[in-house]
Amino acid sequence: MKTPSTLFLPLAALSLASCGGQKKEEAKQPNIIFMMTDDHTTQAMSCYGGNLIQTPNMDRIANEGIRFDNCYAVNALSGPSRACILTGKFSHENGFTDNASTFNGDQQTFPKLLQQAGYQTAMIGKWHLISEPQGFDHWSILSGQHEQGDYYDPDFWEDGKHIVEKGYATDIITDKAIKFLEGRDKNKPFCMMYHQKAPHRNWMPAPRHLGIFNNTTFPEPANLFDDYEGRGRAAREQDMSIEHTLTNDWDLKLMTREEMLKDTTNRLYSVYKRMPIEVQDKWDSVYAGRIAEYRKGDLKGKSLISWKYQQYMRDYLATVLAVDENIGRLLNYLEKIGELDNTIIVYTSDQGFFLGEHGWFDKRFMYEECQRMPLIIRYPKAIKAGSTSNAISMNVDFAPTFLDFAGIEIPSDIQGASLKPVLVNEGKTPADWRKAAYYHYYEYPAEHSVKRHYGIRTQDFKLIHFYNDIDEWEMYDMKADPREMNNVFGKPAEGVGDRVMEMEKRHRKFAGVPEAITPFYVNHEDTECDLLLVGITSTGGAIDEACEALEAEGKKVNHLHLRLLSPFPTEALRPYIEGAKKVLIVEEDLTEQLRELFAIHFSCHDKLLSCLQYDGTPFTASTILKKAKEVF
Fold it and tell me: Can you tell me the distance from the alpha carbon of 581 to that of 338, in angstroms, rounded to the nearest whole number?
């Protein structure tokens, strides 16, 4: 079992009237407030250096606590991320891999463990796990739109009862949080999960913020007009672009009241009608100018993309304003009741979000804007104000961190690591800390058409494998190319091949792939041949067919099937490489990497040949046979 590190809290000395001595109180377990929004991203937080909006109350948490600069979601999608946070386990372990899943609430979660240890627990706001919350003394979760929730007059499922609350969701969730704190048992520590819907699509601002940015022009990201040169099908075939995917009604709100009333089945009308009439009137006034500007028909091409981007930013960022205001309300309340410094306050989001980068909105991809999560924590009894950390952290780390600070033994099956050693050390990374973050996205085919993929993120590099209906790899030098525009996978560069293999080794460890997996196999154990054909599993059938044809002609050939999910097996391969007169590498995407590895490890430049195929069509035996016959 993992054991928590020890945190010694200051003990208050009490004067006892009945005696002249003094007696110390027992150390108190800290309260915990876990604040989480939906789809908020570091680009829209001023404490992360964002230039889009000021977030003074989030900044306060960071300035009076710590800011993590390398915190990553392990599956950048709402429900899966929440399941990872609750359990401290990766998606393939907790069973909630995509938003079509239902969370198994019977499994172990950190709120259950805290509750068993005497904490009062509450879950208020967005749950989005399609099952009844367990481990909470009180819960009130958004239930509309399949638990996505509504911005206006939202439906709640509260302690088993369905209710409708009047008002704006961000404000209501805070009202409910404060009500829970007011009614709690003051003799017990508490853990409250305070989860906002905002700033989730379709970005409906509070009445007080409608139109607040109508006259603001926001800076465009440098890669708003990305053409995906050098990257593969995954980037090109997504359906989450500002240009094509943002809808005129639901997203851009380009419908008048009269038009909505003519088609009351329209999705925008389903949320518009929840507003009080006076808010509808303000909404109509605010969006009238936008509708008129669009309908002039003057906007084309890049100008239209830029215009859509501005409307997207104006709505998205306006919803963030209410989030920040309500964080301020909660901080002020805690200060008023004397619990601010007794409470671990965490602010994060379920993942990041694209704000026009690569021409996109939404999340899902392992690219930095959405894999990276905001994480700021305030707890002055253990965290030095103004600390920052570049320690690689993941959302599976939150559960063990809370248990650690509460003095509760961390179960051995939790896959995350407590962040406490980082927090109490002014953000410095311990020498034995992890060197990489793991990622795996499963939801395809589905909304937004983001291919399934997994990958590894180290401090300097990111390796991604897109799979299922494609087999493509991407690798990015995050120091030289932080915007992830230049895929270096398959390009000759010193050490890249070995780095690929090392990162795949890390992936295998995270994913639970056994170390003993066979790294390669050959058709014939005889190490000597005229031609050794080398390929990875996707080309195996075509290579075998070509080998059979060559053998029928009396040629001495062999087929080496190499598995990438393993360290490069240099010494085991050496007899086959040295025993072959020529080595033909047959691969669609990995040719240059394999050439580099073979050349470096075996000094065999003179015998290396390549059968290249980059056009995305599968290899056939005839293609390979044609190249192989050049050897003879």
Answer: 79
